[in-house]
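<instruction>
Derive structure tokens from the sequence

<record> Sequence and structure tokens follow
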Amino acid sequence: MNPVIIIGAGMAGYALAREFRKLRKDAPLLIITADDGGFYSKPMLSNAFAQGKSADQLVSQTAAQMAAQLDASILAGIAVQAIDPAAKAVQTSAGRFEYDKLVLAVGARPVRLALAGDAAGEVMSVNHIGDYRRFREAMARYGDGARVAIIGAGLIGCEFADDLAGAGYRVTLIDPNSLPLAALAPPALSRGLRAALRQRGVAFRLGTSVVRVDRAADGLRATLADGTDINADIVLSAVGLRTELDLPRSAGLRTGRGIMVDAHGRTSADDIHALGDCAEYMTDAGSRMLPHVTPLMAAARAIAATLAGRPAPIAWQPMPVLVKTLSFPMALLPPASSGSGTWQETQYGERIICRYYDGDGTMVGFGVAPQEASIRQALLGELGSVRLAIA
């Protein structure tokens, strides 16, 4: 009997393997990964500095331990070179393997900006444990008080800024928007986050972008589009992820921004599924990339059931994004589309709650800071209610 093959041993691949094993104890399972196969929680990468966590400390289980736990074979350090959907086989650097079902959990790679300058190649990004290890090693060379310029004030950029500033580093956050987290957070919470990060010592350069990075006598110099410079020891890019589509496209799979999947997580080829950062999901709000833990887990449960012979659609529930900025922790459920809606803000002491009402006056999104589970649940219970009077 050919195995279920999972390509990728990140959170998505291992989450699916765990869910599958709950339903099928006997089916052969093979996991193929280009890295060493160790398990770690990827969200911890952006808030581990202040805790003093090394890369090794973040890895909770080795590939051998995961193989034993999952009763699976794990091939680590192996590159997948091609997929043959007709023959139901994958070609790898370790040979050819036939599958019964195939799951792509290959993640995504950081977007690389087209920067000028003789140090553009030294700009770092952190998307997996190997990146984090190299980043920590680089920071250690400069010691306490190192200067870090972060390109991008989105979710990951803000979490890194908060974490690094909390660990005593000098951080400058650069973004073309006028506020941090502009794409996710209501303006009131973006302003609150900016104030909290400033109090933590983070400097902001908003409304501009980095155009070049050069070596300087005392480190690196980032030149901004407004003509000014920032001196730094390390430049960290956090401007988003992009799915590597060469492999799925060469296999004839339908792609958009990611590998397109249906309501069951199936690709356009029989017996091939995809989930996690590489997948472009079909939801009630249309096709979407959902690079967060909660949708990953929902997809893992549904795909595991389908692989086990119990087809189930992905149960898309409202999924707040938890922002791990300890100086201003937030829960955000942005509306599916901005449309003609409006944000309404309420403040209770230090807590700010923002509700988003669509053109009909129906609450379809929210944001809260500081956030806690009971407040999140209460706001989730309000979704779909009509509270706002329409003029």
In short: The domain at 329-382 is CATH 3.30.390.120 (Enolase-like; domain 1). The two ends are 65 Å apart (CA to CA). The chain has nine helices and 27 strands. The first helix runs from residue 11 to 23.
